[in-house]
Amino acid sequence: MIDDETLRAWFFAEIFPLEAALTRFIRRNWRNLSDIADLRQEIYARVYASAREHLPLQAKPFLFTTARNHLINTAKRGQIVSFEHVADLEASSFAVDTLTPERSLSARDELRLVQAGLDRLPPRCREVVMLRKIEGLSTREVAARLGVGVDTVEQQMVHGMRALADFMLGGSGKIQRPAARRRATKAVRP
Q: Do both 117 and 85 map to the same domain?
């Protein structure tokens, strides 16, 4: 464990001078500009806490890897994930020791699989899922934008998410209406 005086000196000598570059990185990769100061502070807190155990050999890659991971996690927690946004963050040019080519390839394959699953959905269902899950609109906002009832949006959302989950787990990704499921269940029973 690093003593407080050494840690503080390291932070002000190695991390703090990178503040302008970190701010530009956050601004370039985050849509809500009013969050920049808070995000920067959270990143500093994570860097400081991690460095308490062991000072990294290279401060700049450590800082920007932490920033990148924090932005991705924050976007995921907010349930407003733009595929382009996450892809841009993953393609950031900072060296990442922990990001292996295999992990990067796997994440991109998963993203392509999600996109392929979305493409298989009927147009209205795909639009509802994208407005709700990607753009983060409420059920009422989606209903108003599409000129349909809230119940219709909820049904389309359920059907779309089930089909997408089925596709992601290796299934056909076809929407199964309740009547079709009942018929399939009856056919299986002896």
A: no
| Domain enclosing residue 50, as ranges | 1-99
Question: Is 136 in the same domain as 63?
Answer: no
Cα distance between residue 64 and residue 95, in whole Å: 9
CA 69 to mean position of chain CA atoms = 10
113 with 83, same domain? no
First-to-last CA distance in the chain? 66
Burial of 133 (0-12, 13-18, 19+ CB in 10 A): middle
- pLDDT for 98: 56
Q: What is the pTM of this model?
A: 0.44
Q: Is 39 exposed, middle or buried (0-12, 13-18, 19+ CB in 10 A)?
A: buried
In this prediction, residues 14-26 reach a mean pLDDT of 91
